[in-house]
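Quick one, T. Sequence first:
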Amino acid sequence: MTTVSVLPLAGKTALITGATSGIGLVTARELARRGARVVLVGRDADKAARAQQAIQLAAGPEALVHVKCFDLSLLRNVHRLAGEMHQEFEKLDILINNAGIMPGHFALTDEGHELCWATNHLAPYALTNLLLPLLDAAGRARVVTVSSVAHWVGEIEPDRNVRNSPDNYSWLTAYADSKLANILFTKELAHRLDLTGITANCLHPGLVDTGLMRPDTSAVMKALWWMARPAMTSPELGAQTTLHLATSPEVANQSGRYFANSKPARCSGRASSAQEASRLWRISAEETGVE
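Structure tokens:
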């Protein structure tokens, strides 16, 4: 009698943003290897096609790999992505908000949002909320958001006009603020989903050698990045905490927590504030039009 092994994530669907390189690509590949149907989201169609091919090669011809090409710095694209997911899928078991940028020079999207804030925070806030019906339909689902230890120097500016002013802009504070927002969003989301089967957690992946640098990233940041490269870890190691939160039975009932090295970690006082989390939610709802 022949026994058929069942992959641990067979029958589950996972969506990963920023999945065409780095941590996102490794995460998508490993979820596919474990049997999940994976939806890759990236901005570049050529990179997305190469990522799809690489995952298919690694996970086998039976792997189910879908590609969605959207620039998620634009909220209209977030809505389009969510709309397509609702049309094509009945449920979503795992949502990984991995896409993020290290900002360069000050830039506004054509929707009027500072680029780093739009990409790193508003997009995951809006996408997660728009996909909640699919997550709820899964019965037990997980939302995983990639943050950073940089959140320790972050602060949420409530005035959008101040945040969108080049006079007040710094690439470091823009990035740190968005990473703080990731944690506060996760904590408030977990609070709001407390009586559901959906959990929400976030993480610091470590100092990982990825494609986070943009062409317009400041010369200072590029220099610091290259100096730090010898101490950086690989995307394979950087993806481990994400995969732990997305798949491990150990965290199935944990929600609203910040992790590093696959363990609960200490976050800043601001990141621990329920008042700050509630305030950020109101700001995000106003700026995105998504509640």
